Inverse folding.
């Protein structure tokens, strides 16, 4: 960290600058960062914001995206029959012509793979959770499981794109961008859509598109906070340039611009003055959130020791809570490494070790701070995994291919029904037999919790009104508290 | 109509009619269509599938049709009888149109307008942009003296209508700055400013424009804009997003602008250069345009789904870029707003489907997705030509040797004294008789036995034992079959399929199926037909032959394959049970390597002959095999028969010379030629070497994705709901019905399409192009939705001007210089950006052009400006993409270049779709995922961080301040003066200089007290530090220069 960069809000400097500005009687300042990043007050006339349509239950979302697709069979959707018929061929009647990926479509045999992990029921709700997630099991009664999620996409790129934009193909805005477009920002000094990715994790690649704004203006894109010195691009002053030196630069720039303004009014110029003020404030406000040094020891007990290392999933969960406290609307985590085509048992142990404690800690932490009620937390991936083995099955090892027909997601807080499980899959865990929830339904429900009618959050592009839910989507009423 | 509505509505009707000024004529296109389109067409528009009722409002014929029971949507001139009128005014919410649940509504003004229009006869008109471009457009008169050319007279006419006055002229230096950025993307130099300021002649402005238009910087600027349209990227996109080689296309574009290529040629070459007669490399290269879309590199996808997606991308790009139409809407259903039925979409898209491509590009090899063109040069062409000559020459010597051999003494002597049958050049010989520790002996290579995974079973074979395969478990013969495509080779195997199915892989030497591009060679059963392929990239760069008839299930068949090393499908033979087969040539386009394993770069790249299974392919499930043999030469017919029956050639060799039939004699001659005759053996060795030379030369050339038409068009269908495998009606190449018909005389391919598109009267092509260039110069187009000229797009602010410019553009021979000159030499362009607030209030969006727009510089210009003024800019045109500092901070960090690569113009920055240059993205650069015709300019606080803290900008400030300090010997006022002039193109006034001097003083105090900080600050960037003054002075001056770089006037067009 640059030693010259203080981490608190530098009030004194601002007062003097305000005074300075007032001498020009321009009435500038006081306009928040949000106004530049937020369409509610921005001047773009084509971009009318929507606002909420009814009282929201959730004010913000923390979306713990488990990229690569966790195996529902080994975590939540327990199927004893798979263990009973372990190694036997998947009955054709169960598969029923479902298209497979190019990776296993040519396999000659599809042996069923029972989960090697033990399952127990937890809490008053009796939610079934495997031994891989002991911490999540502790908060079972806070969670609302949807075991009947489904999608059409069968590969990561299209499926993540679908899950985050409502379309398999690139070009549409992501959820966070839609919310920024529809609801604007709740904080003055931070972006309204922030992205945190786990550092140094192998797995299916992520791309900036997964938090892009698609056809919405670029200011709605997620801002990724990086776990290095510059949490956002060039946040810090260059080496050797102090905060006071920068303050002086900004002030003199303002003086030059104000001098021009005194000759002729000019909204472009006014805009730029604000833009530079906000950049200056952002330089302090971002480190104010990302600097975890003020967190007490109890925090690390809760989130785990990993949370001390910037860029880990645990550190990102902690950071997500801090961002939520500051009023960031949509906090998107990405954690890679769930793509268990081969060696699934070993891989999923690693992934759950990295994510279980911190995921549960986040819920507990939000609850103890009274924030869980209006914070929607979502956990899940882009699709599920097959009940049959991909590749060679050996006594202690197997893999699972992609499976779009059913998978599990869980939500907590933000107006969802706690201690509830929605949807049922068949006894092979292959198809949904009750209450299917499509990605579009999931989106519609999420928007509903945020007070938005998904059919009315639109943007006109290339002559058409687009929605996150395209022309589909139904709110899943059963999961609402 | 319901009678009670009569009274209900009567009063409002009176009010409505009286409220409308009768003096203004209603224009259907300007006043009515936008309302109908936006509020009604979704359910009452052209989409035949989505009609909520029988009423359609998109044509007069439909709107006035009898709907039954005496109902009419519109009865022209008769509101009372027009149901539309009653429904839009209905007080009962459930009956009112548009319905509440559509989230659409009509204002009273709009309803009144619709009423008046129906009253006046409900005249429809063809949508403005679908009308042919008029041959002549009258230019309005003017006598104000403000106008300089025709553009101004059209603009002035709108001033009069809207009671506006033009803004004052820009100061000369500001005009120069604006025109320099608009045309070249670079600032004027001090010398250029001084020259222009001192040039009082009448053609001073024109001389500047001529100078700019004839610079390479102009070509680079125009190219930079075209890269967004063409969704240019140096990476393949989608999830993997690996790098690709396409920049020669970008350099072609630069060259086209440098020579001011007529726009019709510029477009036609990119659409169809490959279809010109005897197309040259320079003519084919532009067609890379249609292959710049993202390509999928993610194993496991369904190939057809993505092939369809690529075709859709080309169609969308064509429609947006050239037609200004949102054809993509019609992919799943009839367009809801424009007369573009789904069928029209698929007819148009079928023009772009006829190439031999795959939906998946190779993950495990570096094969370039086909069709691809080797990117050659004259030296390499000469080497290839000489190798071809050599191949031809040796081939002809071999043929004449063959012709003379039958009667030669040598052959007669050999015939008289034939040795016994003896295999030669045998490299694998596996009988599968005895399994020892999971291995079978390879009698030809004893120390490397064949290996088998244990799930396969040893079963009784044709002779002794054979193997029954599971289809998921392979068997392999190690270190065998390392053939390049110039190597003749042969192999034999017995097979017994369990069932005849769509596809089974019997054996291969290849890394895998689709995501390895199948590179290598393989023996497949496709619907039981024996199929042999040599593949570089399937399907576009491969040769494949196939037997006419399938083999039988549950019966043993003996297969021999021979190949002569020619890379030609005619050089391959298949024998079934000793009988040479007639073969269908499925592909005959192999031109590149099949032996990528030599690079040794991936484990998956199998170096072995693998039997019964292949990575991501369908194996030989429950099939049996026996007696595998492989030869490192092309064996003769008699040997092939011998391999089947174990005696034919042996018998023949023992047979008395006199008893030999003509056929037998010729078989022996072939055997003799292929193996015994020393002269032939030498010639074959030479031939192999000559082919190897050609092949190696070709393989060393990089390849670039281009268009190459298939011999026959691919069958095309309407895809129901846009789903890739949901084929509806078959369709044939055609242009949309709403546009001029496709002339019979033109070929129904992309070349014909290009000719249709560039017809001088085409309603869209010139209008769309002229509008895009207007946008480039003026910030906004005359049509503000450059990608949508349909009924949901913005209508032109100056329709006559747009038409006049378009007609003039066509008549000038599509001369872009001429078009741009008119724009930048107009009085309209010469206006200042400054205007008083009341005028701004009256036209906040500047639709009527009574001032110039204060546009922020494009991302590329902001960076190029810093490089140019500091003198760091490396003035080199074209070449490989480069990696400046900010790529180190992209989402997929890349190592920045050293040296020149840091200082090239931004259009050369390596463009990676999933991790685009962050400093460019911060300033709203397009991500180039899809064709984009307009960038949205935003102001975010992340932007100042780039220009204040980014090493590129700090370094440029440091270098410039160092130069100026040196030049002016530390005289800070002079430094400020010159930096200000360089960065804003004007001199600062005394107040501005004073403010900057104050800043300098502050900074000097700061750095003087902390010399270490000065040193650290000045260490930013790779350019050498030249210090002529103290470190403190240099650091302080750097801050000052950087501040000037961040001035509004440095970043915004003024």
């Amino acid at each position: 960290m640059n030693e010259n960069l203080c981490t608190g809000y530098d009030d004194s400097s601002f007062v003097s600058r305000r005074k300075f500005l007032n001498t020009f009687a321009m009435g500038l300042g006081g306009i928040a960062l949000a106004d530049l990043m937020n369409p509610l007050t921005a001047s773009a006339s084509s971009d009318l914001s929507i606002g909420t349509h009814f009282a929201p239950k959730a004010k913000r979302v923390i979306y713990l995206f488990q990229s690569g697709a966790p195996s529902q069979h080994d975590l939540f959707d327990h199927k004893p029959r798979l263990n009973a018929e372990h190694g036997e061929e998947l009955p054709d009647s169960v598969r029923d012509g479902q298209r497979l990926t190019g990776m296993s479509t040519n396999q000659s045999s599809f042996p069923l793979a029972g989960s090697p992990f033990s399952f127990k029921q937890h809490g008053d709700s009796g939610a079934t959770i495997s031994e891989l997630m002991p911490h999540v099991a502790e908060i079972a009664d806070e969670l609302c499981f949807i075991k009947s999620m489904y999608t059409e996409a069968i590969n990561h790129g299209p499926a993540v794109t679908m899950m985050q934009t409502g379309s398999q193909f690139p070009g549409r805005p992501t959820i966070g961008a839609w919310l920024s477009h529809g609801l604007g920002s709740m904080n003055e000094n931070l972006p309204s859509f922030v992205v945190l990715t786990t550092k140094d994790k192998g797995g299916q690649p992520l791309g900036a598109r997964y938090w892009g704004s698609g056809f919405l203006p670029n200011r709605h894109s997620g801002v990724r906070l990086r776990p290095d010195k510059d949490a956002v691009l060039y946040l810090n002053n260059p080496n050797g340039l102090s905060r006071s030196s920068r303050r002086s630069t900004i002030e003199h720039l303002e003086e030059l611009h104000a001098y021009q303004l005194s000759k002729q009014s000019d909204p472009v110029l006014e805009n730029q003055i604000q833009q530079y003020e906000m950049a200056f404030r952002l330089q302090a406000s971002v480190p104010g959130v990302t600097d975890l040094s003020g967190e007490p020891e109890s925090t690390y007990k809760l989130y785990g020791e990993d949370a001390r290392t910037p860029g880990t999933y645990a550190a990102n969960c902690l950071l997500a809570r801090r961002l939520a406290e500051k009023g960031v609307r949509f906090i998107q985590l990405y954690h890679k490494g769930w793509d268990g085509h081969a060696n699934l048992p070993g891989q999923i142990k690693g992934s759950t070790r990295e994510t279980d404690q911190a995921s549960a800690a986040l819920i507990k932490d939000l609850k103890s701070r009274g924030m869980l009620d209006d914070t929607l937390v979502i956990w899940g991936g882009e699709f599920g995994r097959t009940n049959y083995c991909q590749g060679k099955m050996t006594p202690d090892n197997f893999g699972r291919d992609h499976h779009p027909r059913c998978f599990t997601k869980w939500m907590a807080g933000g107006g969802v029904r706690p201690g509830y499980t929605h949807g049922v899959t068949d006894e092979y865990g292959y198809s949904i037999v009750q209450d299917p929830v499509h990605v579009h339904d999931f989106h519609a429900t999420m928007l509903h919790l945020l007070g938005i009618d998904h059919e009315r959050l639109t943007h006109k592009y290339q002559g058409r009104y687009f929605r996150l839910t395209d022309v589909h989507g139904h709110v899943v009423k059963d999961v609402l508290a | 109509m319901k009678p009670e509505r009569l009274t209900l509505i009567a009063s409002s009707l009176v009010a409505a009619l009286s409220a409308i000024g009768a003096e203004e004529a209603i224009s259907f296109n300007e006043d009515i269509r936008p309302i109908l389109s936006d509020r009604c067409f979704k359910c009452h528009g052209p989409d035949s599938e989505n009609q909520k009722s029988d009423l359609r409002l998109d044509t007069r014929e439909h709107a006035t049709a009898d709907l039954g029971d005496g109902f009419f949507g519109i009865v022209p001139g008769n509101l009372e009888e027009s149901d539309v009128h009653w429904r839009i005014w209905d007080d009962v919410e459930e009956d009112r149109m548009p319905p509440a649940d559509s989230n659409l509504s009509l204002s009273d003004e709009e309803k009144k307008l619709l009423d008046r229009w129906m009253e006046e006869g409900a005249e429809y008109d063809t949508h403005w942009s679908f009308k042919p471009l008029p041959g002549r457009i009258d230019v309005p008169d003017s006598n104000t003296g403000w106008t300089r050319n025709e553009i101004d007279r059209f603009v002035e006419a709108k001033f009069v209508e809207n009671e506006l006055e033009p803004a004052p002229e820009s100061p000369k230096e500001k005009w120069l700055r604006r025109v320099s950025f608009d045309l070249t993307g670079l600032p004027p130099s001090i010398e250029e400013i001084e020259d222009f300021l001192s040039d009082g002649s009448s053609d001073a402005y024109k001389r500047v424009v001529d100078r700019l238009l004839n610079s390479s910087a102009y070509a680079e600027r125009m190219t930079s804009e075209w890269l967004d349209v063409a969704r240019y990227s140096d990476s393949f996109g989608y999830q993997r997003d690996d790098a690709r080689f396409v920049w020669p296309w970008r350099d072609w574009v630069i060259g086209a602008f440098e020579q001011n290529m007529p726009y019709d040629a510029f477009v036609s070459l990119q659409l169809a250069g490959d279809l010109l007669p005897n197309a040259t490399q320079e003519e084919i290269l532009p067609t890379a345009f249609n292959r710049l879309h993202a390509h999928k590199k993610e194993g496991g996808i369904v190939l057809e789904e993505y092939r369809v997606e690529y075709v859709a991308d080309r169609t969308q790009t064509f429609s947006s870029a050239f037609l200004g139409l949102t054809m993509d809407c019609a992919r799943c259903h009839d367009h809801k707003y424009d007369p573009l039925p789904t069928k029209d979409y698929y007819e148009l898209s079928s023009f772009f489907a006829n190439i031999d491509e795959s939906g998946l590009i190779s993950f495990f090899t570096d094969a370039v997705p086909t069709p691809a063109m080797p990117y050659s040069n004259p030296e390499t062409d000469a080497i290839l030509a000489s190798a071809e000559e050599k191949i031809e020459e040796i081939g002809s010597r071999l043929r004449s040797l063959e012709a003379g051999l039958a009667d030669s003494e040598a052959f007669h002597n050999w015939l008289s004294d034939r040795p016994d049958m003896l295999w030669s050049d045998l490299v694998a010989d596996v009988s599968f008789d005895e399994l020892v520790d999971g291995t079978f002996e390879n009698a030809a290579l004893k120390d490397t036995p064949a290996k088998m995974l244990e799930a396969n079973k040893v079963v009784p074979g044709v002779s002794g034992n054979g193997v029954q395969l599971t289809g998921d478990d392979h068997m392999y013969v190690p270190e065998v079959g390392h053939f390049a495509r110039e190597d003749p080779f042969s192999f034999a195997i017995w097979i017994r399929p369990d069932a005849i199915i769509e596809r089974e892989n019997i054996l291969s030497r290849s890394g895998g199926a689709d995501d390895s591009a199948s590179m290598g060679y393989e023996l497949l059963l496709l619907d039981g037909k024996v199929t042999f392929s040599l593949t570089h990239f399937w399907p576009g760069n491969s040769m494949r032959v196939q037997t006419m008839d399938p083999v039988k299930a549950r019966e043993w068949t003996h297969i021999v394959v021979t190949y002569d090393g020619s890379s030609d499908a005619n050089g391959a033979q298949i024998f079934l049970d000793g009988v040479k087969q007639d073969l269908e040539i499925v592909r005959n386009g192999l031109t590149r390597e099949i032996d990528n394993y030599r690079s040794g770069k991936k484990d998956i790249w199998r170096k072995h002959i693998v039997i019964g299974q292949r990575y991501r392919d369908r194996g030989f499930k429950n099939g049996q095999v026996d007696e595998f043999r492989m030869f490192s030469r092309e064996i003769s017919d008699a040997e092939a028969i011998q391999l089947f029956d174990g005696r034919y050639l042996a018998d023949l060799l023992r047979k008395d010379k006199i008893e030999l039939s003509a056929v037998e004699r010729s078989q022996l001659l072939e055997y003799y030629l292929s193996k015994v005759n020393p002269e032939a053996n030498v010639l074959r060795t030479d031939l192999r070497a000559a082919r190897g030379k050609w092949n190696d030369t070709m393989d060393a050339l990089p390849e670039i994705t281009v268009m190459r038409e298939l011999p026959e068009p691919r069958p095309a269908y309407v895809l129901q709901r846009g789903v890739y495998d949901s084929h509806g009606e078959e369709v044939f190449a055609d242009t949309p019905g709403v546009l001029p018909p496709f002339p019979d005389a033109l070929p129904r391919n992309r070349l014909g399409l290009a000719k249709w598109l560039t017809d001088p009267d085409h309603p869209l092509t010139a209008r769309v192009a002229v509008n895009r260039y207007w946008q480039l110069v003026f910030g906004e187009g005359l049509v503000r939705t450059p990608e949508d000229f349909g009924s949901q797009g913005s209508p032109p602010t100056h329709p006559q001007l747009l038409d006049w410019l378009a007609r003039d553009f066509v008549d000038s021979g599509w001369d872009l210089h001429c078009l741009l000159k008119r724009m930048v030499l107009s009085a309209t362009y010469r206006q200042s950006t400054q205007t008083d607030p009341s005028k701004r209030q009256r036209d906040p969006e500047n639709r009527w052009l009574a001032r110039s727009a204060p546009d922020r510089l494009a991302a590329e210009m902001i960076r190029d400006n810093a490089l140019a003024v500091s003198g760091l800019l490396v003035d080199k045109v074209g070449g490989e993409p480069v990696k400046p500092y900010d790529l180190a901070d992209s989402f997929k960090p890349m190592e920045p270049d050293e040296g020149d690569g840091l200082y090239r113009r931004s259009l050369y920055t390596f463009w990676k779709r999933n991790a685009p240059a962050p400093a460019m993205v911060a300033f709203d650069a397009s991500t180039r995922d899809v064709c984009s015709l307009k960038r949205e300019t935003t102001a975010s606080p992340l932007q100042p961080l780039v220009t204040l803290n980014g090493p590129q900008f700090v370094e440029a400030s440091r270098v410039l301040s160092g130069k100026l300090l040196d030049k002016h010997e530390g005289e800070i006022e002079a430094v400020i003066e010159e930096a200000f002039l360089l960065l804003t193109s004007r001199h600062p006034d005394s107040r501005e200089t004073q403010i900057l001097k104050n800043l300098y003083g502050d900074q000097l105090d700061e750095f003087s007290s902390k010399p270490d900080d000065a040193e650290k600050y000045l260490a930013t960037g790779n350019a050498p530090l030249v210090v002529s003054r103290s470190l403190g002075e240099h650091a302080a001056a750097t801050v000052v220069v950087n501040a000037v770089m961040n001035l509004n006037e440095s970043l915004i067009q003024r």
